[in-house]
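Hey, quick one: can you model this chain's 3D structure?
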Amino acid sequence: MTTRIAQISRHAALALLTAAGLLLITTRPAGATTAVPAPQCVEYYQSWRYTDVHNGCQETVAVTVEYTDPQWAPCRVIEAGNRATFAGYGFTGNYVTGLWTCDPDRDSAESS
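Sure thing. Here's the predicted structure for all 112 residues.
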């Protein structure tokens, strides 16, 4: 016979494990992003669907996008004058808070 408290405890434990799993999926790999902001010549334009990042610098850069929530974004290498597309802010208002330089080799190794 199972008591009501035991049933609630099992449901609470399942909810906690599910939430922890989702956090692990959505957090950014710790080593992929550097502590260095992207150069000012790298600009972004965002809409609800996409964030378009343009490299206006004279050299190739590797950047990732930081959002208002801990959503993970890939590290993308963008050659001078080119663009890359990242996720937009969506229906939840997950806006871009900054662009950061990153290590694309470390990013691909940690996400596999």
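One thing worth noting: The beta strands are 33-37, 42-46, 50-55, 61-67, 76-78, 83-87, 96-102.
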